[in-house]
Every structure is written in C-alpha cells, then in structure tokens.
Amino acid sequence: MAEEAKKRTLIAVIGDEDTVTGMLLAGVGQISNDATESYKQKNFIVVDSKTTDDDLAKAFDNYTTKRDDIAIILINQHLAERIRFKVENFTAAFPAVLEIPSKDHPYDPEKDSVLRRVKRLFGE
C-alpha cells in the first residue's frame, strides 16, 4: 500500500469554470502525455451546461479507477449530486473524494457522503 501511495501525487478537480480556474491558478493543473496513451490526460474537467451526467460519471471513473497518480479528487458538491450513486459507492482509500462548494452553490454538510459515513461510524 505504501508503494501505491507514493505514485499518487496529483489532485484532480471536477468543477465548474470558476472552481477549476481557481485551482489551475493555484498550480493544481497538469496535462501529461502518457507514453501508453495516444492523447494527453488532464487532471481536471470543466463541467458546464453541455456536460452530461454520463460525461461526469466517466470523468469520475477515470480519476478513481483508471489513473494511479491521483491522490485527491475535489468535486463541486452540486456536481457530486448528479453522480451521487458513484460517489456513495466509491469506498477505496485512494483517491480521497472531497466535496467542495462553488461560487453559486453553498456547501450542505447533510449531502456530503464523507460526513454521512463518519456519522454512521459514530452511531449518529
């Protein structure tokens, strides 16, 4: 497990334009040219009105199961709601999935899957 954790060095972002822009300005973004892939892989996706739930689910699956370099996934909570079944069913330790607020959608702790799991552990 420790060897696997050493590979995980990136933060992935699934968010609206403002969130992703802020994260990219903070230095989170990376576009890699993997030798085994014929395309460049980004560790971020900008979700807009044209992005379908299927596209969102594919991005989440890519970051959680297909990539071994992602340590943390930051996802806007309102987008996590659109693929809640995926977020709820993901139970692996890596990558950690953290729901964050966006400019137009405030954070609701009652919807956060991590907080709900913690409450269940403590019997609340």
TrEMBL record:
Keywords of the record: Hydrogen ion transport, Ion transport, Membrane, Transport, Vacuole
Location in or out of the cell: Vacuole membrane
Gene3D superfamilies: ATPase, V1 complex, subunit F
Highest taxon in the source lineage: Eukaryota
Membrane topology type: Peripheral membrane protein
Any one GO MF annotation of this record: proton-transporting ATPase activity, rotational mechanism
One Gene Ontology term, aspect cellular component: vacuolar proton-transporting V-type ATPase, V1 domain
Family matches, as InterPro entries: ATPase_V1-cplx_f_g_su, ATPase_V1-cplx_fsu_euk, ATPase_V1_fsu_sf
Pfam families (UniProt xref): ATP-synt_F
UniProt record similarity statement: Belongs to the V-ATPase F subunit family.
Function recorded in the entry: Subunit of the V1 complex of vacuolar(H+)-ATPase (V-ATPase), a multisubunit enzyme composed of a peripheral complex (V1) that hydrolyzes ATP and a membrane integral complex (V0) that translocates protons. V-ATPase is responsible for acidifying and maintaining the pH of intracellular compartments.
Assembly behavior: V-ATPase is a heteromultimeric enzyme composed of a peripheral catalytic V1 complex (components A to H) attached to an integral membrane V0 proton pore complex (components: a, c, c', c'', d, e, f and VOA1). V-ATPase is a heteromultimeric enzyme made up of two complexes: the ATP-hydrolytic V1 complex and the proton translocation V0 complex.
Protein name per the record: V-type proton ATPase subunit F
